[in-house]
Amino acid sequence: RGQLMERTPVSSSNISAIGYDSDSETLEVEFTNGSVYSYSNVPPGEYEAFMNADSKGKYLHANIKGRYPYVRL
């Protein structure tokens, strides 16, 4: 496909926006420092919980980092 995923701006100290594609179960996290990470095989429920988390940074660290394969974009 190649087109950029739409990302939703979020209020977080270190995350600026989060994108998700349910067809490919791909989660994109854009950090305030400009780096973007793409996580694979992330189920929709995990994305919803991430978006609903009070602290996006804490949720990412506790539930997504180290759990899903990722690449830096």
Hey, roughly how much beta strand do the residues contain? 25-35%
Mean pLDDT: 94
Largest sheet: 5 strands, antiparallel
What gross morphology would you assign? globular
Gap between N and C termini: 15 Å
Compute the number of strand runs: 5
What does this structure look like?
With 73 residues, this protein is an alpha+beta fold. Strands 1-2-3-4-5 form a five-stranded antiparallel sheet, covered by helices on one side. Helix 1 (44-52) packs antiparallel against helix 2. Strand 1 and strand 2 form a beta hairpin. The chain has two helices and five strands, in the order E-E-E-E-H-H-E. The longest helix has 9 residues, at 44-52. It has helices at 44-52, 56-64; strands spanning 7-9, 15-21, 26-31, 36-39, 70-72. The relative contact order is 0.22. The two termini are 15 Å apart.
Please render the helix and strand layout as text.
Blueprint: E1 7-9, E2 15-21, E3 26-31, E4 36-39, H1 44-52, H2 56-64, E5 70-72
Antiparallel strand pairs: 1-2, 2-3, 3-4, 4-5
